Amino acid sequence: NRYGEPLPVDVWNVHNFIIREIRGEWGADVPPGLPGDPQQGWVPEDDCTHIDMDVFDGQIRAFRQWMKDRGQQDKPLMVSEYGVLYTHPVCDGQSMNSPQAVQDFMVGTFDYFFNAKDCDLGYPADECRLVQRWMWYSLDDTGNESHFNQFGALFDPDALGIRMTGEVFRDYCLAHLDELAYPTPIS
């Protein structure tokens, strides 16, 4: 709006962590552009929401709607960072602070990215997929802080070796080589 023309964008990049948005507190800050001067954006109902696939999908669709509303639907969307940041309580009888919970979420998001399509919102040049590229967090942040989830890292920088989640990542990629070679390049 400031310059009277659309933003010259080739690719949109977002982070898709499911974390609270409260100004000046832990989590994310309040997204710019919300009406007024809010001190709070979205706040999850509980910590179990951090790895909720319905919320994850809702955030992607909300951003794709934002893109569409601004004439940007014909641009690729890259989720340049997402993952499991912090430890969790017991949710639905299962401890969320476990390698299995993190790995299940990671694999679930991979399947989502490959399969989530919506021709009303998605990128037409990529069979209406909602997301064209993504990057898991983290390669090597092993979570030395007590509140940080230690199971998200793919590689151990101290031991110089692949971690359990890295093995799951590798095995998934090897099993999906054909899908990983997208026919539509991002220029």
Tell me what the structure shows:
It contains four helices and seven strands; from the N terminus they run βαβββαβββαα. The radius of gyration is 18 Å and the shape is globular. The protein is α/β, with parallel strands linked by helices. The relative contact order is 0.15. The two termini are 26 Å apart. The strands form three sheets. It has a three-stranded parallel beta sheet, covered by helices on one side. A two-stranded antiparallel ribbon has the order 3-4. A two-stranded antiparallel ribbon has the order 6-7. Helix 2 runs parallel beside helix 3. The longest helix has 17 residues, at 53-69.
Low-confidence stretches: none
Question: What composes the largest sheet?
Answer: 3 strands, parallel
Please count the beta strands (DSSP E, at least 2 residues each).
Answer: 7
Helix-strand makeup class: alpha/beta
Radius of gyration: 18 Å
Number of helices, where a helix is a run of at least 4 consecutive DSSP H or I residues: 4
Q: Summarize model confidence as the mean pLDDT.
A: 89
Q: What spatial order of strands do you see in the largest sheet?
A: 1-2-5
The geometry reads as globular
The end-to-end span amounts to: 26 Å
Helix content: 25-40%
SSE arrangement, N to C: EHEEEHEEEHH
Strand content: 5-15%
